[in-house]
């Protein structure tokens, strides 16, 4: 009559009878022999093993690894636990990253752009840029970050500096207004000339145009970024084309939209 029944053992350890039997099946705990009455009696050794297995399982150690841990000598046990802890740390970091992504999803901008870019979008709004222009910038930056990631931080730096120049800000706002003009409006050519002249006179601002060409793949990436959202034949598309033509004429390398 020494020992306790499987039901009592499960209750003492804090698991179900089904769990105890599962531990037996996996070989984590040896199933005790039956006594003269036909009952399996769990002694202190089996109960200790059950407690150890339950504790490791509750800590998140995979059941497939618990047996080797319980059978290891103290040194191997400590090393194995350290490895398990490392795995847990990696999983925790991954879960934290996923949680942070979920938090960022609450803000559409922060889900796709770094905080620095989001701050710049907010700055543009504060400078009086129309909502549609800020939205267009957001989409263009998402593309730029995806297509030319190694140059994106520098690109943001160039924009930060350019937004400090009131003349440049005024030109961009004027270009936003030009999107509503007719494609043959003579003011488009005048604005393109003014924009090209400003860029040529301010090399740091010119890098906004040239800085994303590190991996253009024969202009493919450049076209996707520069022409995003511009309908072919629109006033905005014509303005972009005129500015690029003037920059090329001045010796600035700008990929041509018809290259591949």
Structural write-up:
The protein is an all-alpha fold and 260 residues long. It has 3 domains: 1-70, Multidrug-efflux Transporter Regulator, Chain: A, Domain 2; 72-107; 108-250, no CATH class. Helix content is 68%, strand content 0%. It has 14 helices and no strands. The protein has helices at 6-13, 17-26, 44-58, 63-71, 74-105, 108-112, 115-126, 131-147, 152-162, 166-178, 186-201, 203-210, 220-226, 235-249. Helix 11 (186-201) packs across helix 12 and helix 11 (186-201) packs across helix 14. The mean pLDDT is 82. InterPro entries: DNA-bd_dom_put_sf (IPR009061), MerR-type_HTH_dom (IPR000551), MerR_fam (IPR047057). It comes from Sphaerisporangium flaviroseum. This is HTH merR-type domain-containing protein.
Question: What secondary-structure arrangement, pairings included, does this model have?
Answer:
Layout: H1 6-13, H2 17-26, H3 44-58, H4 63-71, H5 74-105, H6 108-112, H7 115-126, H8 131-147, H9 152-162, H10 166-178, H11 186-201, H12 203-210, H13 220-226, H14 235-249
Helix pairs in contact: 1-3, 3-4, 7-8, 8-13, 9-12, 10-11, 11-12, 11-14
> In angstroms, what separates the terminal alpha carbons?
87 Å
Low-confidence stretches: none
- Overall outline: rod-shaped
The counted number of beta strands is 0
Q: What is the strand content? A: under 5%
Could you estimate the helical fraction of the residues in percent?
Answer: 55-70%
In DSSP terms, counting alpha (H) and pi (I) runs of 4 or more, how many helices? 14
Largest sheet: none
Q: What is the alpha-carbon Rg in Å?
A: 34 Å
H-E string: HHHHHHHHHHHHHH
Round the mean pLDDT to the nearest integer and report it: 82
């Amino acid at each position: 009559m020494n020992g306790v029944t499987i039901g009592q053992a499960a209750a003492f350890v804090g698991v179900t009878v089904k769990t105890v039997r599962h531990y037996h099946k996996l070989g984590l705990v040896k199933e005790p022999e039956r006594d003269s009455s036909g009952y399996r009696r769990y002694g202190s050794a089996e109960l200790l093993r059950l407690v150890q297995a339950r504790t490791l399982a509750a800590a998140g150690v995979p059941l497939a690894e618990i047996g080797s841990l319980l059978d290891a000598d103290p040194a191997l046990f400590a090393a194995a636990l350290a490895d398990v802890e490392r795995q847990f740390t990696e999983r925790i970091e991954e879960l934290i990253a996923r949680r942070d992504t979920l938090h960022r999803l609450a803000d559409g901008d922060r889900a796709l752009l770094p905080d620095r870019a989001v701050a710049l979008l907010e700055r543009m709004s504060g400078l009086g840029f129309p909502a549609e222009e800020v939205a267009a910038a957001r989409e263009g930056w998402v593309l730029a970050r995806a297509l030319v990631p190694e140059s994106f931080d520098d690109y943001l730096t160039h924009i930060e500096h350019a937004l400090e120049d009131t003349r440049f800000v005024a030109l961009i706002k004027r270009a936003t207004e030009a999107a509503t003009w007719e494609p043959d409006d003579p003011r488009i050519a005048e604005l393109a000339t003014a924009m090209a002249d400003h860029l040529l006179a301010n090399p740091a601002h010119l890098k906004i145009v040239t800085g994303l060409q590190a991996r253009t793949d024969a202009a493919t990436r450049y076209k996707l970024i520069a022409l995003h959202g511009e309908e072919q034949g629109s006033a905005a598309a014509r303005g972009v084309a005129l500015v690029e033509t003037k920059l090329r004429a001045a010796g600035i390398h700008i990929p041509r939209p018809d290259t591949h």
